[in-house]
Specification:
Elements lengths: L10 E4 L3 E4 L3 H7 L4 H8 L3 H8 L13 H15 L3 H8 E4 L4 E4 L11
Antiparallel strand pairs: 1-4, 2-3
Helix pairs in contact: 2-4, 4-5
Length: 116
């Protein structure tokens, strides 16, 4: 019996959408009159993180998008600068790209979840 009560050797978990910076991100920040480096400091995020998010092709070790917490830190900092609410800032700065697939997670052999 599987841990959730179903006779199954594997189960599926839907992935959350990946969060990415909008293409207009650098222009939106520039319109506030500050640099990306200054914006990063105000948001409490490293400048290298922002550059990695802007140019993922230059950072092959990075996978996926940004963490939701990071996205909201950026949105809140932008909201203060642009005098808008954080939800509107999130919609302007952040793009959510849904995952097309689900991943299958099979219990490892010999674990309590593998018991049949």
């Amino acid at each position: 019996m599987h841990w959730n009560g179903f006779k199954s050797k594997a189960f599926s978990v839907a992935k959350l959408p990946h969060l990415h910076l909008a293409n207009r991100f650098p222009d939106l920040i520039a319109q506030t009159g500050i640099s990306l480096r200054t914006f990063a400091r105000r948001a409490g995020i490293s400048f290298s993180t922002i550059m990695g998010l802007l140019h993922p092709e230059l950072h092959p070790g990075r996978r996926g998008g940004m963490q939701r917490r990071t996205a909201w830190m950026l949105a809140q900092a932008y909201a203060e600068l642009a005098h808008i609410d954080a939800d509107a800032a999130f919609r302007l700065l952040i793009v959510e790209r849904p995952e097309e697939s689900v991943i299958d997670i099979a219990p490892a052999k010999g674990t309590i979840h593998d018991a049949s």
